[in-house]
Structure formats: C-alpha cells, structure tokens
Amino acid sequence: MYLTHLECTACGLRHDAKELQNLCTACSKPLFPRYDLPGLERVWKRDSLATREKSLWRYREVLPLARDAEPVSLGEGGTPLLPAKRFGAALGLSELWIKDESQNPTQSFKARGMAVAVSMAKQLGATKLAVPTAGNAGGALAAYAARAGLEAHIFMPADTPRANMIECRELGAHVTLIDGLITDCGAEIGRRKAAEGWFEMSTLKEPYRVEGKKTLGYELAEQLHWQLPDVVLYPTGGGTGLIGMWKAFDEMETLGWIGSKRPRMFSIQATGCAPIVRAFAAGEQSAPEFPDAHTVASGLRVPKAVGDFLMLRILRESGGGALTIDDAEMISITREVGANEGIFVAPEGAACFAALRSLCASGTISRDERVVIFNTGSGIKYLEAYTL
Ligand SMILES: *Cc1c(COP(=O)(O)O)cnc(C)c1O
Ligand SMILES: [Zn+2]
User: Whose atoms come closest to the Cα of 11: which ligand?
Assistant: First the structure.
C-alpha cells in the first residue's frame, strides 16, 4: 500500500486517508490521494505491467485500496484504443485514435470512478451511498453498490434519459427523480445525508472517483508505448477524467515512466451548458454556474463543477482550449462516426468529433498531430435523442 494521505488541491491541508472524507475540512475544495511515489519508483517498473490482468486494477500500486482488500469489480478499464482511420483521413489527419469507453461495465467510463470509490467506501465502513447524477454515474453506482452489498440512493433530474433510470432501478438502487438539474439533486442529498446516514459519492466531493478515472491516463500512455499524444479531446462535465488524467501524467513522470511532454488538452462542452468554455474564454480562474443548462448530452449537463479551477488550470498549462458544440451537430455527426468506424458513440463522444472537425478547419490542430478522442459512453443509452 503506497497511499500515504489525502491532500487538498487548493490549500494543501493534509487529511487522514484512513477515514471517510468528502471535501477539504478547511476550504471545501477537492482532496487528492497522495502516494509514496519516490518509494514506488525504486520497485515498480512499467515493464512489469505486461503480464497483468486487463482491467484498471493492473495499476494497483497507484490505487488507494489496501493491498489485501478485494476490489469491487465488474471488469472495468482495459478498454481498446482504436484507430479512426476513415474519419481521420477525411479530415486529413495522419493519426486519430478513439479511446472507446463505451466498452466498460454499464456502458460508460463512470464505471472506472465508481469501481474505485465503492471499493474504498466499503473498506472504510460506509453502508449507504448517495449520488446526484446527470445519468451514467447513477447506473455505475447502482451496479457497484449492488456488487458490494451496499445501498445506493440515486438522485437524478426527471428528464434524464430513460435508460439510466430503468438501469438504476433494475440494479436495485433507490431512485428519486428531481424536478431540476444535477445541482438540485446534489442540494437534496446535502439536506438529507446527515439524517439518513448517507455517504456522498458526488464526483470530486469524495477523493477516489478521480483515482479510478486517472487510469485513463495510465492506459493511454501504456497503449501508446509511453509516448503521450499531441492532443486530447475530452467531453467535459464535472471534469473528473480530465483532472484525473493530468494527475496520472504527473505520477507517471515521477515514476520515470514518461517524460515531461504533455498533450494539449481540450474541453468540449454543449452550447446549452458551457461553464468551462465560458470561463476559459473570459480568462477566469473559476467558472460561475451556467444558467438554464440544457443538452441531450446528459453527461455534459453540469452547470457548476467543484473542480472548475483545476480544469481551467490544466487547459491553460497544457496549451489547449475549450469549445462548444450544439446538440443538432452532435446528433448528425453520430452517424458519420458510426458508419465510418463501427462505434455508436454517445452524444458526448460525438461532440468531440464535431469539435475535432472545427479545430482542424481552423488550423488549431495540424495534420501531423497525434489526436485522441474519448468516447465516454454508448449511444444506446440515449435513444430518445434519435428519430427513427
Ligand atoms: C459523466 C460523463 C461525461 C463527463 O465526465 P466528467 O469526467 O465528469 O467531465 C462525459 N460523457 C459521458 C457519457 C458521461 O457519462
Ligand atoms: Zn483546503
């Protein structure tokens, strides 16, 4: 076990990792798990990965779970990095890749975060887990809580895609529909959690979902033979994957696995909900709540993110950017991706393909750059968004 403590991402205050924690007790910002990386660097070589299982647990040394604890697992992670030859060639790109996260349990990359967070919640003694969700996080929590023998209490907007609601219910979760947005769902949990004895699993409001999602960064580096790509396009809601990948890059550099080169990171959001894009353009350090948030890409319908300042810092440090795509464009490009690459992408993933086209047209991305798009979920969960 190399986990040493939790550290506040804003004020640096240390917190005990042997207890259940949510936000920093001093400043209410997210906590990051920290590891004895110098100690690990001496004993853990990247070549040792070759013979390990194809799941995110292959990076066990940089995951927080105790060495003798059995992970709560459904086979998450280890997703393919697929070349998108036809779509890439049509844009004149020499190298375009899709990290296809729809192949995770519950068909989205939320499985990564929840596998690790539920494993930790169980280890630390939580019994009732609550989450506000725009869609896929609910399904993932329901699945892993069931697997762990814990209760799941899920709060989702009443207009969440039907597949997400039914999935949660059939996985045995307690589902409450809220007439509002994910922020209203979070507020309801905040009001009731003390009385109900719920542990809140909202992303970045507990320290371990980001650890599951950081394995995106480890996998990307390993699958590209330890050469990070030039550009990453990431459909951004709460930003946990973006923040997690950046953490993974720093950890891998400390471990001596990669050099100091980083990809340019781009956040893609929906025109109807673009707090990060707006704050990035305005040169702000944090992102105010986006009013009247609406988009069919439910994973992007996050009007206010607790990790906003971390995302904005990463986008700037990496020399990347942020742009919006409207719903109609997400839906229309889905078939182009599907027909050319054989993947029915989620609207969130589709938004990245549309963004790529615009970034190529403007010359922001050049043809010789190596580009990776994250398809974070499956179109199958969003059937209402498509007409027959
Ligand atoms: C949650 C979600 C996102 C956004 O992920 P974050 O890491 O919270 O920004 C993107 N796509 C899908 C399909 C999602 O479920
Ligand atoms: Zn703090």
Answer: 2
Q: Are strands 95-100 and 81-83 parallel, antiparallel or unpaired?
A: antiparallel
In the chain, alpha helices (H) = 37-43, 85-90, 110-123, 136-148, 162-170, 182-196, 209-223, 240-254, 275-281, 308-317, 327-341, 347-361
Lateral strand order in the sheet of 370-375: 81-83, 95-100, 370-375, 231-235, 264-270, 321-325
Instruction: Give the global pTM.
Output: 0.98
Task: List the Cα angle 155/380/74 in 5-degree steps.
Answer: 65
Residue-wise pLDDT tens digits, 164-220? 999 999 999 999 999 999 999 999 999 999 999 999 999 999 999 999 999 999 999
Confirm or reject: Cβ of 110 under 6 Å from ligand 1.
Answer: yes
Distance 251 CA to ligand 1 centre (A): 23
* Structural domains of the chain, ranges and CATH numbers in brackets: 81-108+208-385 (3.40.50.1100)
**Can you tell me the distance from the alpha carbon of 68 to that of 1, in angstroms, rounded to the nearest whole number?**
9
Any ligand 1 atom below 6 A from CB of 318: no
Q: Rounded CA gap, 292 and 43, in Å?
A: 51
275 lines ligand 1 (CB under 6 A): no
Measuring CA to CA, which residue among 30, 34, 23, 25 is closest to residue 9?
30
